[in-house]
Amino acid sequence: MSDTAVAPPKAKQNFRGNGGVRGWFGRQPTWVRAIVTLVALGLAILLPYAGDVPLIGPQIVTQGIDWPSSLFNMSYYVLLALGLNVVVGYAGLLDLGYVGFFAIGAYGTALLTSRDSLLYAHSGWSWLAAAPVALAITMAAGLILGWPTLRLRGDYLAIVTLGFAEIIRIVATSTPNFLRGDRGFTNIPHPPGQGADGKPIFGVTDATPYFWLGLAVIVVVILGVRNLDRSRVGRSWLAIREDEEAAEIMGVRTTRFKLWAFAIGAFIGGLGGVLFAGEQGFINSQTFVLQFSILVLAGVVMGGSGNMAGAILGGALISYIPDRLRGISDPFFHTDLYEYRFAIFGVVIIVIMVLRPQGLIPSRRRAMELKDREKEVAPL
Amino acid sequence: MNFSGLINDFGPLTVTGLAQGAIIALFALGYTLVYGVLRLINFAHSEVFLLGTYGCLIAWGWFGLDQNSKAPNFGAMLAYMALGLVVAIVASGLTALAVELVAYRPLRRRNAPPLAFLITAIGASLAISETVGVLTHRNQRGVPPIIQARTVITIGDTHITNLQILIVVLALVMMFVLDRFINGSRLGRGIRAVSQNPDSAALMGVNKSRVISLVFLLGGLMAGIAAVMYDLKIGVTKYDAGFLLGIDAFTAAVLGGIGNLRGALLGGLLLGVLQNYAAGLFGSQWLHAAAFVLLVLILLFRPTGLLGESLGRARA
């Protein structure tokens, strides 16, 4: 390190010029980073009690929905955003039917465990036993959808994935015996476990344990995805995203790594679905509307696609903002503001893409790619 | 699977399919035109259509017409039709231009990656359809009986109504006019030039921005006409009407060869008929699923569509 030889320009000496918070974080020794991470995690664990904080607490918690439930919603949205971020942000594949995988995870769980299911003989499976099977089904679905479609151009892929989610919804609404349409599945068991007082940990009244479960899953997913991103797989994704043809010429097996991205995205989406089914105990075909996938996409783009911190922030916001708006009516039409959520996020997507295409917390590499393209701009 | 149903209703299913296909074809032109020039899927085109369906209803509403009013006499019918068409075309055309201006132009300036265009288009689509959804409380709105469907031709047990004939004829006429415009006029030559090679066209003095706006406008006009036909045929519209039919229209455009005008017509008619056969075979709830399955199959086996891609090469 011979950084004393050339004095850096003065403008670069301020905090922002040195990379802001993330730059500071990156320069700290490992133990400081570990402490900061643990403190952040600890604060996240304490979130269900945020309402007890004086002054700011009551501003944060939601009114129209109880706060732990809202936190649990946030946790599975964050999970979905993390999964979609792998597909859209890392591999650069636009998947508009992500809700399809969420639905497969939830329906897989329901089919194996619920008393309403065709597969139910004398006793259903427990939630914990059903979860890995449901996840395997979801991953297989990702591979089955990905294998024929990933050879397509990016914009065609978007439409085909959209169609996939729509077909799942149509199948769910029009098979009264298999996926049971509007009647749906009841009595999906909750996750196992008993507290010291003999009551089940995962009950129906308090969503706090579910939030902690979701948080734990998120941490595991973050660690897994981070390792993948820094491996050969992650570098291949990067190459495919920047220039697929060049990547192929350099020997990257593009279809294989795109399939990987798809399957991992599907797995994480399915994980969200399994958690969701376990918490709700009931799902029907109304649960999985298509706007849902677009909402998650909005979250990833808003937070900063290709960056996990961005995906987490985006995923949390798309869940938190509408939940916070619940129970507040607008002054003109007296509609619950919650009704406007999709319209608002539609506008947000446009504004972000036009003004700050790299998102709220941009991936640095991604920001450089965008800048690079701007230089090549053709005269209009 | 209901094979006897399909065979017994073969005639009626074909006729319904053709009328539906004509609407889809007009709708699909918007996708094809924009794709031919910009090489991107205008996802917000479904909302261009949606505002057309509401535009003509609102115009008829000015004259106190709603779904319960009586059918007007022939002269009034012509006047109402003209009014509805004009208002729908204006509504759709302006929406298309606005989408181009707000969602596409800023990105084009910055040479954003193709994915970015798609994402803003989705944002625009979501914003428009959901705003309509909130304003209409997500209820459907009935259409006044401007044209009473009457059977005018009967072949065997197949009854063909005046409305079905009108829809198919209007679609064919509009296709012909548009085809002449693109292949015969000076502005059309500009469109073909930009679609062949945008940079060379710009160097030869074609105003690229204007051509792009023109293409969006033309797509909007066709969607406006399709919207009026849709209103009259289906009898109701709803905030998600554009989205569902938009998928069909896009499939039709890909089926015929996206970027190819005649392909859009062929693809639309073919898709309409095939969808109705599928509905006869499996039940009507599978109509849209059939479109998706067909789309995947085309993309796998013949991604350039039946007539091949490219607006510019259509004649050359």
From TrEMBL, chain A:
Give the signal peptide as a residue range, or say none if absent: none
Keywords, ordered alphabetically: Cell membrane, Membrane, Transmembrane, Transmembrane helix
Note the topology in the membrane: Multi-pass membrane protein
| Cellular component annotations (GO), alphabetically ordered | plasma membrane
- Localization terms from the record: Cell membrane
Q: What is its main location?
A: membrane
Note the Pfam families from the entry: BPD_transp_2
Q: Name one molecular function that GO assigns to this entry.
A: branched-chain amino acid transmembrane transporter activity
Which InterPro entries does the protein's record reference?
Answer: ABC_transp_permease (IPR001851), LivM-like (IPR043428)
Its transmembrane ranges are 31-51, 71-91, 96-113, 125-147, 154-172, 210-228, 259-278, 290-321, 342-361
State what protein this is by name.
Branched-chain amino acid ABC transporter permease
TrEMBL record, chain B:
- Could you list the residue ranges that cross the membrane? 20-41, 48-65, 77-103, 115-135, 163-182, 211-230, 250-274, 286-303
Using the UniProt record, give the first listed, main subcellular location: membrane
Where found? Cell membrane
A GO biological process of this protein is: L-alanine transport
Q: Name one GO molecular function term.
A: L-valine transmembrane transporter activity
Which segments does the entry list as coiled coil?
none
Q: Sorted alphabetically, which Pfam families does this protein's record hold?
A: BPD_transp_2 (PF02653)
Q: Please name the PANTHER family in this protein's record.
A: BRANCHED-CHAIN AMINO ACID TRANSPORT SYSTEM PERMEASE PROTEIN LIVH, HIGH-AFFINITY BRANCHED-CHAIN AMINO ACID TRANSPORT SYSTEM PERMEASE PROTEIN LIVH
Q: What is this protein called?
A: Branched-chain amino acid ABC transporter permease
Say which species the protein is native to.
Paractinoplanes toevensis
